[in-house]
Amino acid sequence: MNSATLLRAIARGERSAREICDEALARIEASDGAVNAFTAVTAQRARAEADAVDARRARGETLPPLAGLPYAVKNLFDIEGLTTLAGSRINQELPAAHEDAVLVQRLRAAGAVLVGALNMDEYAYGFTTENTHYGATRNPHDSARIAGGSSGGSGAAVAARQVPLTLGSDTNGSIRVPASLCGTWGLKPTFGRLSRRGSYPFVHSLDHLGPLADGVHSLALAYDALQGPDPLDPGCQALRVQAAAPALQQGMAGLRIGVLGGYFREHASAPARAAVDLAARTLGARGEVLWPDAALARAAAFIVTASEGGSLHLHDLRQRPQDFEPLSVDRFIAGLLQPADWYLRAQRFRRVYRDQVNALFQDWDLLLAPATPVSAPEIGSEWIEIDGSRHPCRPAMGLLTQPISFAGCPVVAAPLWPEGTGGMPIGVQLIAAPWNEALCLRAARMLEEAGTARMEP
Question: How many C-beta atoms lie closer than 10 Å to residue 451's C-beta?
Fold first, then answer.
């Protein structure tokens, strides 16, 4: 039963929130041994929150928009009473969080029911969730393959139908990559749109937070519930709520839609290009668009990521490097050794680059690109091939997402199932100008209603 059906059943009193909560907990218990999406299950809290929803209905109150919907969050979000692991061994020594992250508070206010915390790459530095400390999260469509990262648990939990909604983070692609490889919907909002207070940081100048879901309507409802100013978070630039869900049925008539060529075609496999072509036909896209300086933007994003990430963990890298994830510790150390001039030049470039990207949207309303160059590789893969060209597997998963997030644009990742992947999904990025998430979600809804993009069992 998908999220839209669940929400209707609860709102009409046909199903109780407690019943749905218990079913979700049972699915997690039955399936997570194979998937490894969860690092903690908050069963007692979940049942209490579900009971509170049922009590409100019994009193005749109007239920909030996500009433009774089970969800889980990447384990870098603070959950009251749990230690915020951020995928690491070192953070196990921290005290438990004394309150929920702001976005968890907002989902609770919207009636959603928290069932647990989800696996991720250590400190969000990775695209595969092959976590040495907590085990690799496995792709629900093929357990030999990666789920993507760093929000791998968030993507896998939705794809495995453990929960219909999750929260993740996206610095260089960490919502869009798992959404693409697991075949779910995912939203990376505009940089600065949502509060990050109460989440463990990776790269302050690049981190985004956002939802993954089993359908566009629940993705939009969750996004609307997550919105709002936060004067205590200097990184949150939103001044008001701009609801997206009411605009889902407006369609795309009259909008200028283009397909990113050049870099975004050259670094995509034939199935990834086919997925974009399918979406383009459904949406009526016209014309190829060249995104400015995509390769330079990716290089600059790597520099900023490594520098800020390494600096954040300087003390532990000096004192206990052996306790870090083997797949990321060398990159953290390398970031510390980068010249400061590299970082400053990357940030100066970013300011010019954002202006160049924003200028594209004077001529275009929406742009399409693949989300990942290939479908999910096997766990442990060191290399992938893209049209005969060999690339290191783990960083290559972000080839097509990093240039977009470096500009801060909002993106919905839509799940498509092109031929040539062995039955695996590849996502398409629906990209709009900053602060225009509603347009991305409208396009996603059109793809969903046409059957071009969809979740699979």
Answer: 8
